[in-house]
Amino acid sequence: MNNVATKMVAVPDIAGSGQEPVIEDRALAISEMSERFGVTLRTLRFYEEKGLLNPTRKGARRFYGARDVSRMQVILQAKKIGLTLVEIRRVIKLVEGNTNRNDQFKELQEICKSQHEILIEQKQMLDEQIAEVDGILSAFDQLVA
Fold this sequence. Notes:
Elements: H1 3-7, E1 28-29, H2 30-37, H3 41-49, E2 56-58, E3 61-64, H4 66-80, H5 85-96, H6 101-144
Antiparallel strand pairs: 1-3, 2-3
Helix pairs in contact: 4-5, 5-6
């Protein structure tokens, strides 16, 4: 077996691809961007308003280049794991910054570890709430039966 292939590591979107994605040699209109990522036009405008996306304008129309496509991949994965807009902005700044790639990965790893701890705590709280509701439902089952 080829040792090179077994040592390759897939880099998560949140870490950025390290290069601009290859897309059509033209910018994407807002409707194309919306369709590509399965989000509403309002969502794209919201991310623009928050400074996370920066489409170019031609009249009233918005056009998204490769940088915005890369950012949108990061935004959606970061959102999926529960990061806040402030944290997403931090991730984008880190990925697009001049910090060496290994240091970027270490900091991104810390961000993800921190989020993991938060999610574990939330899961424990949800498990406790579910157990409480189960107890209440069980009591109702006895009263209603």
